[in-house]
Design a protein that fits this description.
By secondary structure, the chain is an alpha/beta fold. The protein has one domain: Vaccinia Virus protein VP39 (Rossmann fold, 3-Layer(aba) Sandwich), CATH 3.40.50.150. Helices cover about 30% and strands about 15% of the residues. The protein contains eleven helices and eight strands. Strands 1, 2, 3, 4, 5, 6, 7 and 8 form an eight-stranded mixed β-sheet that branches. The N terminus is likely disordered. This is Methyltransferase domain-containing protein. Keywords: Methyltransferase, Transferase. It comes from Nocardia arthritidis. GO terms for molecular function: methyltransferase activity.
Length: about 260
């Protein structure tokens, strides 16, 4: 890949439902309380997490490659790889991937799932404390994980570990509704307050909106606004199931029972 010291790293955002746009955070966002503790609960149930979390369609990675120039020559850093759902797709592109995952059990499952690939290394650490050993990357990918990173550390560090013409891509799934259905979040707002009072994530705009501020340190924002993959329609029981496990956003089965009653 051609590199130029005069070109600043760029950011794009990619979602399994929508290709979004992000920009470097220049304000001083407050650290969300208990961020690390809330994220660790998934490490207790890696198999359940892997079963319930939606994956990412191939079309998404095709577009990611078209936007960023990602190919077999690329060196990719994945932040918060979880059980390796996006990691496997990145590896299939032939690029070299260093995946960072703070959960020991999650990282172990990811290593088992990607054992067939020789171009991936999984390192157990938070992104904030990770030792990059001077390595630099063409693309940084965070699949449904960037919200766990302390923004006051994460954004500057992302800029630091990318080559000058590198890209940062944020992947995620979004909840959509069909015409005529009640807005799920509006209908369940009181449950969020009951089971996770004071959760700073609730009622806030999506991450891509929060980080649109200035272009300091970053190049142009890519905002294609595309949709990927089929819409997944779940029954009430299936939709609530992920919330029945330990979750950073809810208090166990009581949440699931009440949520089921509302929707």
């Amino acid at each position: 890949m051609t590199r130029s010291a005069t070109v600043r790293p760029q950011i794009c955002g990619v979602s399994a439902a929508n290709l979004i746009a992000c920009a470097f955070v220049t304000s001083d966002p407050k650290i969300r309380p208990n961020r690390r503790d809330r994220g660790r609960v998934f490490n207790e149930v890696p198999e359940l997490y892997d079963r319930n979390r939606p994956g990412y369609p191939d079309e998404l990675f095709a577009d990611l490659g078209a936007i960023t120039g990602l190919d077999e020559r690329s060196v990719v850093l994945e932040v918060g790889c979880g059980t390796g759902q996006a990691t496997r797709a990145l590896a299939a592109l032939g690029c070299s991937v260093t995946a960072v995952e703070p959960g020991v059990d999650m990282a172990a499952l990811a290593r088992r799932r990607i054992a067939a690939f020789r171009n991936i290394e999984v390192e157990t650490s938070t992104f904030e404390e990770w030792d990059d050993r001077g390595r630099r990357f063409d693309v940084l990918v965070a699949a449904s994980s960037w919200h766990w990173v302390d923004p006051s550390v994460g954004w500057p560090r992302a800029h630091e570990v990318l080559y000058p013409d590198g890209w940062m891509a944020l992947l995620g799934n979004i909840v959509v509704r069909r015409p005529g259905e009640p807005e799920v979040y509006a209908e369940t707002a009181d449950l969020h307050e009951q089971f996770c009072p004071g959760n700073p994530d609730w009622g806030h705009p999506p991450l891509e909106d929060e980080v649109r501020s200035t272009d300091e340190g970053w190049g142009p924002i890519n905002d294609p606004g595309l949709l990927f993959g089929p819409t997944i329609v779940r029954s009430i029981a299936a939709y609530v199931s992920p919330f029945s496990t330990p979750s950073p956003n809810a208090s166990g089965r009581g949440w699931a029972t009440e949520y089921h009653g509302v929707i």
